[in-house]
């Protein structure tokens, strides 16, 4: 049986479930949200283009499939979509912000982080060491380009298909880029939320997903709250560990079989 798991912020899941509580806010507090950024790199809020678009991030071979699905289920001109072919430079942030849906790839995110990530505070303070005249460089010597337009849009939501690629505690360029994106809502869609290996490895993997989701407090990059409240009790076989994990997952996760998704597919967008 094929199972699809969708993990998201608790407020988003509550909204989808038709629940309304005082704890569910329509918008994210950017200041608090950015406190979870592990990269120590940020884009000033005044440089962001506000958008109603959803950014969908998929494996490279699936970009064309998403393009086909949009064409199959959406009437022409009913939805403004941008399909990133990854061979060209990205449009400006204001151009991207004008779309309803933007589909891009894992390799695009990794490349954008390598060449177009925001400068760290160290790189900003020490141009004489990390830059030569007009050519600014990152601390690894890579020439620093303009900040990626993907990072200068305030997306309504970011959806990562096969989002288990964001799991783990050793950040990749893909993970760093995904974590730094500005968005009101974040989704992880996957059929394998953990690698199902050793218990401790699965817990570390799960924490990486929570960092991307910016779950509070368990998605803090330092992992202290996660380790103290869930990982340690779980590994010591204390009942509170599994209970706390189940309580968390009930708040942020939906689980569907392939058949159940087929049964609830909406009519095409016209």
TrEMBL record:
Record's superkingdom? Eukaryota
Q: MF terms per GO, please? A: ATP binding; ATP-dependent activity, acting on DNA; hydrolase activity
The record's section on Pfam families has: SNF2-rel_dom
UniProtKB keywords: ATP-binding, Hydrolase, Nucleotide-binding
* Residues covered by the Helicase ATP-binding domain: 44-211
Gene Ontology annotations of biological process type: DNA repair
Q: Do the record's keywords include Amino-acid biosynthesis?
A: no
Coiled-coil stretches, from where to where?
A: none
- SUPFAM superfamilies, A to Z: P-loop containing nucleoside triphosphate hydrolases (SSF52540)
Q: Which GO terms describe its cellular component?
A: nucleus
Q: Coiled coil: present as a keyword of the record? A: no
Q: What is this protein called?
A: Helicase ATP-binding domain-containing protein
Annotated source species: Phytophthora nicotianae
The upper taxonomy is: Eukaryota, Sar, Stramenopiles, Oomycota, Peronosporomycetes
């Amino acid at each position: 049986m094929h199972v699809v798991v969708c993990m998201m912020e608790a407020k988003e899941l509550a909204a989808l479930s038709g629940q309304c509580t005082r704890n569910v806010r329509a918008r994210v507090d950017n200041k608090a949200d950015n406190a979870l950024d592990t990269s120590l790199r940020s884009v000033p809020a005044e440089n962001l283009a506000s958008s109603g678009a959803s950014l969908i991030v998929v494996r490279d071979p699936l970009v064309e499939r998403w393009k086909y699905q949009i064409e199959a289920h959406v009437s022409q001109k009913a939805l403004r979509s941008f399909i990133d072919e990854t061979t060209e430079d990205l449009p400006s942030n204001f151009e991207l912000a004008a779309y309803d849906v933007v589909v891009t790839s894992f390799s695009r995110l990794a490349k954008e982080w390598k060449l177009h990530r925001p400068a760290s505070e160290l790189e900003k303070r020490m141009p004489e060491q990390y830059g030569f005249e007009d050519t600014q460089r990152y601390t690894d010597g890579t020439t620093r380009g303009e900040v990626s337009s993907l990072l200068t849009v305030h997306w309504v939501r970011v959806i990562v298909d096969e989002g288990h690629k964001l799991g783990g505690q050793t950040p990749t360029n893909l993970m760093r880029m995904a974590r730094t994106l500005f968005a009101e809502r974040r989704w992880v869609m996957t059929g394998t939320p953990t690698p199902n290996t050793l218990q401790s490895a699965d817990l570390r993997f799960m924490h990486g997903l929570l960092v991307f989701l910016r779950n509070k407090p368990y998605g803090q990059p330092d992992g202290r709250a996660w380790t103290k409240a869930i990982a340690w009790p779980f590994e010591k076989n204390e009942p509170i560990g599994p209970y706390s994990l189940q309580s968390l997952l009930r708040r942020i996760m939906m689980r569907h079989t392939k058949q159940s998704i087929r049964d609830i597919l909406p009519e095409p967008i016209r």
